[in-house]
Protein backbone atom coordinates (compact mmCIF):
# COMPACT_ATOMS: atom_id res chain seq x y z
CA UNK A 1 0.00 0.00 0.00
CA UNK A 2 1.00 3.61 -0.54
CA UNK A 3 2.40 5.97 2.10
CA UNK A 4 -1.08 6.98 3.12
CA UNK A 5 -3.54 4.21 3.75
CA UNK A 6 -6.86 3.71 1.99
CA UNK A 7 -8.59 4.55 5.22
CA UNK A 8 -11.05 7.44 4.95
CA UNK A 9 -11.72 8.22 8.59
CA UNK A 10 -14.76 10.42 7.97
CA UNK A 11 -16.42 7.70 5.89
CA UNK A 12 -15.66 4.82 8.27
CA UNK A 13 -16.82 6.91 11.24
CA UNK A 14 -20.20 7.25 9.53
CA UNK A 15 -20.34 3.46 9.10
CA UNK A 16 -19.54 3.12 12.82
CA UNK A 17 -22.27 5.67 13.68
CA UNK A 18 -19.94 8.20 15.26
CA UNK A 19 -20.50 11.82 14.21
CA UNK A 20 -16.90 13.05 14.21
CA UNK A 21 -16.05 16.72 14.05
CA UNK A 22 -13.79 17.78 11.18
CA UNK A 23 -10.97 18.43 13.62
CA UNK A 24 -11.26 14.97 15.17
CA UNK A 25 -11.37 13.35 11.73
CA UNK A 26 -8.20 15.16 10.73
CA UNK A 27 -6.26 14.14 13.86
CA UNK A 28 -7.49 10.54 13.73
CA UNK A 29 -6.59 10.32 10.03
CA UNK A 30 -2.96 11.09 10.78
CA UNK A 31 -2.82 8.85 13.88
CA UNK A 32 -4.51 5.89 12.24
CA UNK A 33 -2.42 6.26 9.05
CA UNK A 34 0.60 5.82 11.36
CA UNK A 35 -0.92 2.73 12.97
CA UNK A 36 -1.82 1.22 9.58
CA UNK A 37 1.69 1.90 8.34
CA UNK A 38 3.00 0.05 11.38
CA UNK A 39 0.76 -2.98 10.82
CA UNK A 40 1.86 -3.21 7.16
CA UNK A 41 4.66 -5.45 8.47
CA UNK A 42 2.14 -8.29 8.73
CA UNK A 43 2.09 -8.56 4.93
CA UNK A 44 5.65 -9.86 4.89
CA UNK A 45 4.68 -12.89 6.95
CA UNK A 46 4.36 -16.13 5.01
CA UNK A 47 1.09 -17.68 6.16
CA UNK A 48 0.79 -20.32 3.47
CA UNK A 49 -1.20 -23.22 4.85
CA UNK A 50 -1.82 -21.51 8.21
CA UNK A 51 -5.36 -21.57 9.54
CA UNK A 52 -6.77 -18.38 11.03
CA UNK A 53 -6.95 -18.49 14.83
CA UNK A 54 -10.10 -16.94 16.26
CA UNK A 55 -8.90 -17.82 19.74
CA UNK A 56 -5.58 -18.60 21.37
CA UNK A 57 -6.95 -21.89 22.62
CA UNK A 58 -8.87 -24.19 20.29
CA UNK A 59 -12.58 -23.95 21.01
CA UNK A 60 -15.54 -25.96 19.84
CA UNK A 61 -19.24 -25.33 19.88
CA UNK A 62 -20.47 -25.16 23.44
CA UNK A 63 -24.08 -25.88 24.28
CA UNK A 64 -26.05 -25.64 27.45
CA UNK A 65 -29.50 -26.96 28.21
CA UNK A 66 -32.18 -24.77 26.66
CA UNK A 67 -34.15 -24.47 29.86
CA UNK A 68 -35.86 -21.38 31.26
CA UNK A 69 -34.47 -19.76 34.38
CA UNK A 70 -35.04 -16.56 36.30
CA UNK A 71 -33.42 -13.47 34.87
CA UNK A 72 -34.17 -9.77 34.72
CA UNK A 73 -37.73 -8.65 35.14
CA UNK A 74 -38.85 -6.07 32.57
CA UNK A 75 -38.51 -3.43 35.28
CA UNK A 76 -34.89 -4.40 35.97
CA UNK A 77 -34.07 -4.55 32.27
CA UNK A 78 -35.44 -1.03 31.87
CA UNK A 79 -33.80 0.31 35.01
CA UNK A 80 -30.99 2.05 33.09
CA UNK A 81 -33.02 3.18 30.07
CA UNK A 82 -32.50 6.85 29.16
CA UNK A 83 -36.19 6.97 28.15
CA UNK A 84 -38.97 4.48 28.67
CA UNK A 85 -42.74 4.27 28.65
CA UNK A 86 -45.26 1.46 29.15
CA UNK A 87 -42.48 -1.04 29.88
CA UNK A 88 -40.71 -0.25 26.60
CA UNK A 89 -37.57 1.62 25.46
CA UNK A 90 -38.48 4.89 23.76
CA UNK A 91 -36.57 5.94 20.61
CA UNK A 92 -37.23 8.54 17.89
CA UNK A 93 -39.77 7.49 15.31
CA UNK A 94 -38.21 5.08 12.78
CA UNK A 95 -41.17 4.33 10.47
CA UNK A 96 -43.28 7.13 9.02
CA UNK B 1 -1.39 -3.37 65.31
CA UNK B 2 -2.94 0.08 64.97
CA UNK B 3 -5.64 1.08 62.50
CA UNK B 4 -2.97 3.03 60.60
CA UNK B 5 -0.85 -0.05 59.99
CA UNK B 6 -3.70 -2.38 59.13
CA UNK B 7 -4.22 -1.42 55.45
CA UNK B 8 -0.60 -2.35 54.63
CA UNK B 9 -0.95 -6.05 55.48
CA UNK B 10 -1.37 -8.82 52.92
CA UNK B 11 -4.64 -10.70 52.49
CA UNK B 12 -3.06 -13.80 54.07
CA UNK B 13 -1.99 -11.81 57.15
CA UNK B 14 -5.34 -10.03 57.32
CA UNK B 15 -7.06 -13.42 57.38
CA UNK B 16 -4.90 -14.54 60.31
CA UNK B 17 -5.74 -11.36 62.22
CA UNK B 18 -9.44 -11.81 61.50
CA UNK B 19 -9.48 -15.49 62.42
CA UNK B 20 -7.61 -14.89 65.66
CA UNK B 21 -10.21 -12.19 66.38
CA UNK B 22 -7.43 -9.60 66.75
CA UNK B 23 -9.41 -7.33 64.47
CA UNK B 24 -13.03 -7.45 63.37
CA UNK B 25 -14.19 -7.24 59.76
CA UNK B 26 -15.85 -3.97 60.74
CA UNK B 27 -12.55 -2.53 62.01
CA UNK B 28 -10.87 -3.58 58.78
CA UNK B 29 -13.40 -1.63 56.71
CA UNK B 30 -13.04 1.39 59.00
CA UNK B 31 -9.24 1.36 58.74
CA UNK B 32 -9.41 1.00 54.98
CA UNK B 33 -11.92 3.82 54.72
CA UNK B 34 -9.63 6.09 56.70
CA UNK B 35 -6.67 5.22 54.47
CA UNK B 36 -8.65 5.79 51.27
CA UNK B 37 -10.03 9.10 52.53
CA UNK B 38 -6.58 10.40 53.43
CA UNK B 39 -4.65 9.10 50.38
CA UNK B 40 -7.00 8.88 47.44
CA UNK B 41 -7.33 12.61 46.82
CA UNK B 42 -3.64 12.35 45.75
CA UNK B 43 -3.69 8.96 44.02
CA UNK B 44 -7.13 8.98 42.38
CA UNK B 45 -7.47 5.21 42.28
CA UNK B 46 -11.24 5.05 42.86
CA UNK B 47 -14.20 6.08 40.75
CA UNK B 48 -16.80 5.12 43.33
CA UNK B 49 -16.86 3.78 46.88
CA UNK B 50 -19.58 2.20 48.92
CA UNK B 51 -18.25 1.77 52.43
CA UNK B 52 -21.75 1.91 53.92
CA UNK B 53 -22.78 -1.26 52.13
CA UNK B 54 -19.38 -2.79 52.95
CA UNK B 55 -19.82 -2.10 56.66
CA UNK B 56 -23.19 -3.86 56.62
CA UNK B 57 -21.62 -6.90 54.98
CA UNK B 58 -18.72 -6.78 57.43
CA UNK B 59 -21.12 -6.88 60.38
CA UNK B 60 -22.03 -10.46 59.56
CA UNK B 61 -18.86 -11.59 57.78
CA UNK B 62 -17.88 -15.22 58.27
CA UNK B 63 -14.12 -14.93 58.69
CA UNK B 64 -13.65 -18.68 58.38
CA UNK B 65 -14.59 -18.59 54.70
CA UNK B 66 -11.62 -18.60 52.25
CA UNK B 67 -11.72 -14.78 51.90
CA UNK B 68 -14.05 -14.08 54.83
CA UNK B 69 -14.18 -10.39 55.69
CA UNK B 70 -11.54 -9.39 53.12
CA UNK B 71 -12.41 -6.18 51.24
CA UNK B 72 -11.58 -6.37 47.52
CA UNK B 73 -11.49 -3.43 45.07
CA UNK B 74 -13.04 -4.02 41.66
CA UNK B 75 -12.03 -2.50 38.33
CA UNK B 76 -14.97 -0.41 37.16
CA UNK B 77 -15.58 -2.58 34.10
CA UNK B 78 -16.90 -5.52 36.16
CA UNK B 79 -20.55 -5.45 37.20
CA UNK B 80 -21.25 -5.29 40.94
CA UNK B 81 -24.95 -5.29 41.78
CA UNK B 82 -26.44 -1.87 42.56
CA UNK B 83 -23.05 -0.17 42.05
CA UNK B 84 -22.06 2.08 39.15
CA UNK B 85 -20.15 0.45 36.28
CA UNK B 86 -18.87 3.38 34.23
CA UNK B 87 -15.93 1.78 32.38
CA UNK B 88 -14.51 5.30 33.00
CA UNK B 89 -16.67 6.42 30.07
CA UNK B 90 -19.16 9.23 29.79
CA UNK B 91 -21.38 6.86 27.83
CA UNK B 92 -22.09 4.82 30.98
CA UNK B 93 -22.50 7.78 33.27
CA UNK B 94 -25.34 7.04 35.70
CA UNK B 95 -25.51 3.33 34.88
CA UNK B 96 -26.08 1.01 37.84
CA UNK B 97 -25.45 -2.71 37.52
CA UNK B 98 -28.60 -4.78 37.89
CA UNK B 99 -26.54 -7.93 38.55
CA UNK B 100 -23.26 -9.32 39.89
CA UNK B 101 -20.63 -10.61 37.47
CA UNK B 102 -19.76 -14.28 38.05
CA UNK B 103 -16.42 -13.29 39.64
CA UNK B 104 -18.31 -11.08 42.11
CA UNK B 105 -20.74 -13.89 42.96
CA UNK B 106 -17.73 -16.13 43.54
CA UNK B 107 -15.89 -13.54 45.66
CA UNK B 108 -19.01 -13.04 47.78
CA UNK B 109 -19.43 -16.80 48.17
CA UNK B 110 -15.84 -16.88 49.46
CA UNK B 111 -16.71 -14.17 52.00
CA UNK B 112 -14.97 -11.22 50.31
CA UNK B 113 -16.48 -7.75 50.40
CA UNK B 114 -16.45 -5.61 47.23
CA UNK B 115 -16.36 -2.01 48.42
CA UNK B 116 -15.17 0.25 45.60
CA UNK B 117 -14.70 0.55 41.86
CA UNK B 118 -11.30 1.49 40.49
CA UNK B 119 -10.28 3.79 37.65
CA UNK B 120 -9.19 2.54 34.24
CA UNK B 121 -8.56 3.67 30.71
CA UNK B 122 -11.98 4.11 29.11
CA UNK B 123 -13.30 0.60 28.31
CA UNK B 124 -9.84 -0.73 29.27
CA UNK B 125 -8.32 0.83 26.14
CA UNK B 126 -4.93 2.16 27.10
CA UNK B 127 -1.71 1.60 28.99
CA UNK B 128 -1.62 4.56 31.38
CA UNK B 129 -5.16 5.13 32.75
CA UNK B 130 -4.96 8.58 31.14
CA UNK B 131 -7.76 7.60 28.76
CA UNK B 132 -10.20 7.61 31.68
CA UNK B 133 -12.94 10.13 30.88
CA UNK B 134 -13.28 10.80 34.61
CA UNK B 135 -9.78 11.49 35.94
CA UNK B 136 -6.15 10.46 35.90
CA UNK B 137 -4.76 8.06 38.46
CA UNK B 138 -1.26 8.77 39.75
CA UNK B 139 1.54 6.35 40.49
CA UNK B 140 1.99 6.12 44.28
CA UNK B 141 5.78 5.91 43.83
CA UNK B 142 5.90 9.26 41.98
CA UNK B 143 2.70 11.24 41.67
CA UNK B 144 3.89 12.90 38.46
CA UNK B 145 3.90 9.52 36.72
CA UNK B 146 1.24 7.16 35.39
CA UNK B 147 0.28 3.95 37.21
CA UNK B 148 0.18 2.07 33.89
CA UNK B 149 -3.04 0.71 32.53
CA UNK B 150 -5.62 -0.10 31.84
CA UNK B 151 -6.13 -1.49 35.38
CA UNK B 152 -4.19 1.51 36.76
CA UNK B 153 -6.70 2.23 39.52
CA UNK B 154 -6.55 -1.35 40.83
CA UNK B 155 -2.72 -1.42 40.78
CA UNK B 156 -2.35 2.04 42.36
CA UNK B 157 -4.92 1.20 45.06
CA UNK B 158 -3.08 -1.98 46.06
CA UNK B 159 0.35 -0.28 45.92
CA UNK B 160 -0.83 2.66 48.06
CA UNK B 161 -2.44 0.33 50.63
CA UNK B 162 -5.87 1.60 49.63
CA UNK B 163 -6.89 -1.99 48.95
CA UNK B 164 -5.79 -5.38 50.23
CA UNK B 165 -6.33 -6.82 46.78
CA UNK B 166 -8.20 -5.98 43.62
CA UNK B 167 -9.59 -7.42 40.43
CA UNK B 168 -8.40 -6.12 37.08
CA UNK B 169 -8.88 -7.21 33.51
CA UNK B 170 -6.15 -7.95 30.99
CA UNK B 171 -6.69 -7.77 27.23
CA UNK B 172 -3.11 -7.00 26.16
CA UNK B 173 -1.30 -6.51 29.46
CA UNK B 174 -3.79 -4.42 31.42
CA UNK B 175 -3.23 -6.31 34.68
CA UNK B 176 0.48 -7.13 34.36
CA UNK B 177 1.79 -3.77 33.08
CA UNK B 178 0.20 -1.56 35.79
CA UNK B 179 1.18 -4.15 38.42
CA UNK B 180 4.78 -3.82 37.21
CA UNK B 181 4.72 -0.02 37.16
CA UNK B 182 3.19 0.15 40.66
CA UNK B 183 5.34 -2.58 42.24
CA UNK B 184 2.60 -5.14 42.96
CA UNK B 185 1.64 -8.61 41.76
CA UNK B 186 -0.72 -9.02 38.78
CA UNK B 187 -1.90 -12.29 37.26
CA UNK B 188 -3.54 -12.78 33.88
CA UNK B 189 -5.10 -16.23 33.92
CA UNK B 190 -5.32 -18.54 30.92
CA UNK B 191 -8.08 -17.50 28.54
CA UNK B 192 -11.22 -19.23 29.83
CA UNK B 193 -9.88 -19.96 33.32
CA UNK B 194 -12.00 -17.18 34.86
CA UNK B 195 -15.53 -16.37 33.72
CA UNK B 196 -15.98 -13.15 31.74
CA UNK B 197 -19.72 -13.03 32.48
CA UNK B 198 -20.39 -9.52 33.78
CA UNK B 199 -17.11 -8.10 32.47
CA UNK B 200 -17.97 -5.38 29.96
CA UNK B 201 -16.51 -6.79 26.74
CA UNK B 202 -13.65 -5.01 24.99
CA UNK B 203 -12.00 -7.76 22.89
CA UNK B 204 -13.83 -10.99 23.65
CA UNK B 205 -11.14 -13.40 22.45
CA UNK B 206 -8.46 -11.69 24.58
CA UNK B 207 -10.13 -10.40 27.77
CA UNK B 208 -9.48 -12.14 31.10
CA UNK B 209 -10.19 -11.07 34.68
CA UNK B 210 -7.42 -11.59 37.23
CA UNK B 211 -6.09 -10.51 40.64
CA UNK B 212 -3.85 -7.58 41.60
CA UNK B 213 -2.28 -8.12 45.02
CA UNK B 214 0.64 -7.33 47.34
CA UNK B 215 2.00 -10.89 47.35
CA UNK B 216 1.99 -13.96 45.13
CA UNK B 217 0.18 -15.93 47.84
CA UNK B 218 -2.64 -13.37 47.82
CA UNK B 219 -2.97 -13.72 44.03
CA UNK B 220 -3.28 -17.49 44.50
CA UNK B 221 -5.91 -17.03 47.21
CA UNK B 222 -8.04 -14.84 44.94
CA UNK B 223 -7.58 -17.30 42.06
CA UNK B 224 -8.83 -20.09 44.33
CA UNK B 225 -12.04 -18.10 44.69
CA UNK B 226 -12.65 -16.84 41.14
CA UNK B 227 -11.34 -19.57 38.79
CA UNK B 228 -13.60 -22.22 37.33
CA UNK B 229 -16.21 -23.08 34.77
CA UNK B 230 -19.28 -20.90 34.28
CA UNK B 231 -22.19 -21.99 32.08
CA UNK B 232 -22.89 -18.27 31.49
CA UNK B 233 -19.60 -17.89 29.60
CA UNK B 234 -19.32 -20.34 26.72
CA UNK B 235 -15.57 -19.67 26.46
CA UNK B 236 -14.92 -20.60 30.08
CA UNK B 237 -13.01 -23.86 30.41
CA UNK B 238 -14.60 -26.85 32.09
CA UNK B 239 -11.42 -28.01 33.79
CA UNK B 240 -10.77 -28.76 37.46
CA UNK B 241 -9.38 -25.90 39.56
CA UNK B 242 -6.33 -26.83 41.64
CA UNK B 243 -5.51 -25.29 45.02
CA UNK B 244 -3.11 -22.62 43.78
CA UNK B 245 -1.34 -22.34 47.12
CA UNK B 246 -0.74 -26.08 47.53
CA UNK B 247 2.42 -26.28 45.41
CA UNK B 248 4.20 -23.35 47.07
CA UNK B 249 7.78 -23.99 48.18
CA UNK B 250 11.15 -22.27 48.16
CA UNK B 251 13.04 -24.59 45.86
CA UNK B 252 13.11 -24.38 42.08
CA UNK B 253 15.27 -27.44 41.36
CA UNK B 254 14.09 -29.19 38.23
CA UNK B 255 12.33 -26.09 36.87
CA UNK B 256 13.36 -24.99 33.37
CA UNK B 257 12.90 -21.32 32.51
CA UNK B 258 13.23 -19.88 29.02
CA UNK B 259 14.48 -16.40 28.21
CA UNK B 260 13.07 -15.45 24.81
CA UNK B 261 15.87 -13.97 22.73
CA UNK B 262 13.38 -11.67 20.94
CA UNK B 263 12.30 -10.10 24.28
CA UNK B 264 15.79 -8.90 25.20
CA UNK B 265 15.73 -6.11 22.68
CA UNK B 266 17.29 -2.70 22.43
CA UNK B 267 14.91 -0.12 23.77
CA UNK B 268 14.64 -1.79 27.15
CA UNK B 269 15.55 0.77 29.77
CA UNK B 270 19.04 -0.09 31.11
CA UNK B 271 17.82 -0.08 34.71
CA UNK B 272 14.96 -2.43 33.81
CA UNK B 273 17.44 -4.63 32.01
CA UNK B 274 19.71 -4.68 35.06
CA UNK B 275 16.86 -5.68 37.38
CA UNK B 276 15.76 -8.48 35.03
CA UNK B 277 19.30 -9.81 34.65
CA UNK B 278 19.63 -9.90 38.45
CA UNK B 279 16.27 -11.67 38.77
CA UNK B 280 17.34 -14.31 36.25
CA UNK B 281 20.49 -14.94 38.32
CA UNK B 282 18.38 -15.16 41.47
CA UNK B 283 16.01 -17.71 39.89
CA UNK B 284 19.05 -19.67 38.80
CA UNK B 285 20.46 -19.62 42.32
CA UNK B 286 17.16 -21.07 43.58
CA UNK B 287 17.79 -24.08 41.38
CA UNK B 288 16.01 -23.16 38.14
CA UNK B 289 17.77 -23.99 34.91
CA UNK B 290 17.84 -21.02 32.53
CA UNK B 291 17.85 -21.59 28.78
CA UNK B 292 17.60 -19.21 25.84
CA UNK B 293 14.59 -19.83 23.59
CA UNK B 294 13.17 -18.22 20.48
CA UNK B 295 9.69 -16.87 19.71
CA UNK B 296 10.27 -15.87 16.09
CA UNK B 297 6.89 -14.19 15.49
CA UNK B 298 7.28 -11.78 18.43
CA UNK B 299 7.84 -8.69 16.31
CA UNK B 300 4.36 -9.07 14.80
CA UNK B 301 2.44 -9.34 18.08
CA UNK B 302 1.62 -5.65 18.55
CA UNK B 303 0.41 -5.32 14.96
CA UNK B 304 -1.74 -8.45 15.21
CA UNK B 305 -3.16 -7.23 18.50
CA UNK B 306 -4.20 -3.80 17.24
CA UNK B 307 -6.10 -5.38 14.36
CA UNK B 308 -7.84 -8.13 16.31
CA UNK B 309 -8.55 -6.11 19.47
CA UNK B 310 -9.95 -3.14 17.55
CA UNK B 311 -12.03 -5.40 15.28
CA UNK B 312 -13.61 -7.10 18.29
CA UNK B 313 -14.05 -3.76 20.07
CA UNK B 314 -15.86 -2.23 17.10
CA UNK B 315 -18.41 -5.05 17.27
CA UNK B 316 -18.69 -5.15 21.08
CA UNK B 317 -19.11 -1.40 21.48
CA UNK B 318 -21.93 -1.26 18.93
CA UNK B 319 -24.24 -1.91 21.90
CA UNK B 320 -23.65 1.61 23.22
CA UNK B 321 -26.25 3.39 21.13
CA UNK B 322 -28.19 5.45 23.65
CA UNK B 323 -31.23 3.19 23.60
CA UNK B 324 -31.09 0.71 26.48
CA UNK B 325 -28.69 2.21 28.99
CA UNK B 326 -26.23 4.98 29.58
CA UNK B 327 -25.85 8.36 27.97
CA UNK B 328 -28.21 9.57 25.25
CA UNK B 329 -27.69 12.72 23.16
CA UNK B 330 -30.39 15.33 23.67
CA UNK B 331 -33.16 16.08 21.18
CA UNK B 332 -32.18 13.69 18.39
CA UNK B 333 -33.91 14.50 15.13
CA UNK B 334 -34.05 10.85 14.06
CA UNK B 335 -32.64 7.52 15.09
CA UNK B 336 -29.37 7.88 13.12
CA UNK B 337 -28.79 11.26 14.72
CA UNK B 338 -29.44 9.58 18.09
CA UNK B 339 -26.77 6.94 17.45
CA UNK B 340 -24.21 9.24 15.83
CA UNK B 341 -24.34 12.00 18.41
CA UNK B 342 -24.70 9.71 21.42
CA UNK B 343 -21.53 7.90 20.39
CA UNK B 344 -19.69 11.09 19.38
CA UNK B 345 -20.49 12.75 22.70
CA UNK B 346 -20.25 9.62 24.86
CA UNK B 347 -16.97 8.02 23.74
CA UNK B 348 -13.52 9.51 24.30
CA UNK B 349 -10.87 9.85 21.56
CA UNK B 350 -9.06 6.51 22.06
CA UNK B 351 -12.30 4.55 22.01
CA UNK B 352 -13.40 6.33 18.84
CA UNK B 353 -10.04 5.68 17.19
CA UNK B 354 -10.23 1.98 17.97
CA UNK B 355 -13.84 1.61 16.83
CA UNK B 356 -12.95 3.31 13.54
CA UNK B 357 -9.83 1.19 13.03
CA UNK B 358 -11.75 -1.97 13.91
CA UNK B 359 -14.61 -1.10 11.58
CA UNK B 360 -12.09 -0.48 8.80
CA UNK B 361 -10.14 -3.75 9.18
CA UNK B 362 -13.41 -5.69 9.11
CA UNK B 363 -14.85 -3.83 6.13
CA UNK B 364 -15.39 -5.39 2.74
CA UNK B 365 -12.23 -5.19 0.63
CA UNK B 366 -9.89 -4.92 3.65
CA UNK B 367 -10.99 -7.89 5.72
CA UNK B 368 -8.61 -10.37 4.08
CA UNK B 369 -5.64 -8.03 4.04
CA UNK B 370 -5.93 -7.01 7.68
CA UNK B 371 -8.22 -9.12 9.84
CA UNK B 372 -7.75 -12.53 8.24
CA UNK B 373 -4.00 -12.01 7.87
CA UNK B 374 -3.80 -10.98 11.54
CA UNK B 375 -5.67 -14.13 12.60
CA UNK B 376 -3.21 -16.26 10.66
CA UNK B 377 -0.20 -14.55 12.22
CA UNK B 378 -1.93 -15.02 15.57
CA UNK B 379 -1.85 -18.75 14.90
CA UNK B 380 1.92 -18.51 14.27
CA UNK B 381 2.35 -16.69 17.60
CA UNK B 382 0.33 -19.40 19.33
CA UNK B 383 2.52 -22.09 17.73
CA UNK B 384 5.69 -20.28 18.89
CA UNK B 385 4.57 -20.63 22.49
CA UNK B 386 3.33 -24.22 22.08
CA UNK B 387 6.73 -25.15 20.70
CA UNK B 388 8.87 -23.49 23.43
CA UNK B 389 6.64 -24.90 26.15
CA UNK B 390 7.72 -28.37 25.04
CA UNK B 391 11.20 -27.39 26.27
CA UNK B 392 10.60 -25.11 29.27
CA UNK B 393 8.13 -24.78 32.14
CA UNK B 394 7.80 -21.01 31.92
CA UNK B 395 9.24 -17.96 30.18
CA UNK B 396 10.80 -14.91 31.83
CA UNK B 397 11.01 -11.35 30.53
CA UNK B 398 10.50 -7.78 31.63
CA UNK B 399 6.80 -6.95 31.99
CA UNK B 400 7.30 -3.46 30.56
CA UNK B 401 10.36 -2.17 28.65
CA UNK B 402 10.32 1.02 30.74
CA UNK B 403 9.39 2.08 34.28
CA UNK B 404 6.41 4.37 34.84
CA UNK B 405 6.41 7.30 32.44
CA UNK B 406 5.25 10.86 33.08
CA UNK B 407 1.59 11.82 32.84
CA UNK B 408 1.03 13.38 29.43
CA UNK B 409 4.26 12.04 27.95
CA UNK B 410 2.68 9.63 25.46
CA UNK B 411 -0.95 10.67 25.06
CA UNK B 412 -0.49 12.47 21.73
CA UNK B 413 1.09 9.45 20.04
CA UNK B 414 -1.16 6.37 20.21
CA UNK B 415 1.39 4.16 18.43
CA UNK B 416 4.08 4.90 21.06
CA UNK B 417 1.52 4.05 23.76
CA UNK B 418 0.71 0.76 22.01
CA UNK B 419 4.38 -0.24 22.02
CA UNK B 420 4.36 -0.09 25.85
CA UNK B 421 2.59 -3.48 25.69
CA UNK B 422 5.22 -5.21 23.59
CA UNK B 423 6.03 -7.95 26.14
CA UNK B 424 2.53 -8.59 27.45
CA UNK B 425 0.38 -8.70 24.31
CA UNK B 426 1.48 -12.08 22.91
CA UNK B 427 0.17 -13.94 25.99
CA UNK B 428 -3.35 -12.71 25.27
CA UNK B 429 -3.09 -13.63 21.60
CA UNK B 430 -1.89 -17.14 22.52
CA UNK B 431 -4.35 -17.50 25.42
CA UNK B 432 -1.63 -18.47 27.90
CA UNK B 433 -1.27 -17.29 31.51
CA UNK B 434 1.19 -14.69 32.82
CA UNK B 435 2.15 -12.94 36.02
CA UNK B 436 4.10 -9.81 36.88
CA UNK B 437 5.96 -9.59 40.18
CA UNK B 438 8.19 -6.86 41.64
CA UNK B 439 11.89 -7.46 40.90
CA UNK B 440 13.64 -4.21 41.72
CA UNK B 441 13.68 -0.48 41.21
CA UNK B 442 14.85 2.06 38.70
CA UNK B 443 16.00 5.44 40.05
CA UNK B 444 14.60 8.41 38.14
CA UNK B 445 14.43 12.07 39.20
CA UNK B 446 15.07 11.11 42.80
CA UNK B 447 12.22 8.58 42.87
CA UNK B 448 12.37 4.82 43.16
CA UNK B 449 10.22 3.33 40.38
CA UNK B 450 9.26 -0.36 40.51
CA UNK B 451 10.35 -2.84 37.85
CA UNK B 452 8.26 -5.93 37.08
CA UNK B 453 9.37 -9.42 36.12
CA UNK B 454 6.99 -11.31 33.86
CA UNK B 455 6.58 -15.08 33.98
CA UNK B 456 4.54 -16.67 31.19
CA UNK B 457 3.13 -20.16 31.62
CA UNK B 458 1.43 -22.88 29.64
CA UNK B 459 -2.34 -22.88 29.26
CA UNK B 460 -3.94 -23.74 32.62
CA UNK B 461 -0.53 -23.81 34.32
CA UNK B 462 -1.22 -20.92 36.71
CA UNK B 463 -0.16 -23.12 39.63
CA UNK B 464 3.32 -23.44 38.13
CA UNK B 465 3.97 -19.73 37.48
CA UNK B 466 2.55 -18.89 40.90
CA UNK B 467 4.89 -21.44 42.47
CA UNK B 468 7.93 -20.00 40.66
CA UNK B 469 6.86 -16.43 41.42
CA UNK B 470 6.35 -17.27 45.09
CA UNK B 471 9.77 -18.91 45.45
CA UNK B 472 11.42 -15.88 43.82
CA UNK B 473 9.42 -13.41 45.92
CA UNK B 474 10.26 -15.17 49.19
CA UNK B 475 13.96 -14.95 48.36
CA UNK B 476 13.79 -11.15 47.87
CA UNK B 477 12.47 -8.11 49.72
CA UNK B 478 11.03 -6.24 46.74
CA UNK B 479 7.41 -6.99 47.65
CA UNK B 480 7.93 -5.53 51.13
CA UNK B 481 8.86 -2.08 49.83
CA UNK B 482 6.04 0.44 50.22
CA UNK B 483 5.73 3.71 48.28
CA UNK B 484 6.54 6.90 50.21
CA UNK B 485 2.98 8.20 49.97
CA UNK B 486 1.09 8.85 53.20
CA UNK B 487 3.65 7.05 55.34
CA UNK B 488 3.34 7.97 58.96
* Tally of contiguous helical segments of chain A: 3
Largest interface: A-B, 52 and 77 residues
Tell me the quaternary state: heterodimer
The total strand number of chain B stands at: 11
Beta strands of chain A, count: 2
Sequence of secondary-structure elements of chain B = HHEHEHEHEHEEHEHEHHHHEHHEEH
Note the beta-strand portion of chain A.
Answer: under 5%
Q: Major β-sheet of chain B, in short?
A: 11 strands, mixed
Outline type of chain B:
globular
Count of domain modules of chain B: 2
Q: In percent terms, what proportion of residues of chain B is strand? A: 5-15%
The side-by-side strand order for the widest beta sheet of chain A comes to 1-2
* Percentage of residues assigned to helices of chain B: 25-40%
Describe this structure in words.
The complex is a heterodimer of chains A (about 100) and B (about 500). Helix content of chain A is about 30%, strand content about 5%. With about 100 residues, chain A is mainly alpha-helical. Chain B has helices at about 10-20, 25-45, 50-60, 100-110, 150-160, 175-180, 215-225, 270-285, 300-315, 335-345, 350-360, 365-390, 415-420, 425-430, 460-475; strands at about 45-50, 70-75, 115-120, 165-170, 185-190, 210-215, 255-260, 290-295, 395-400, 435-445, 445-455. Chain B has 2 domains: about 5-260 and about 275-295 and about 395-480, Amidase signature (AS) enzymes (Alpha-Beta Complex); about 300-380, no CATH class. Chain B contains 15 helices and 11 strands. The longest helix of chain B has 22 residues, at about 365-390. Chains A and B meet through α1 and α2 of A and α9, α10, α11, α12 and α13 of B.
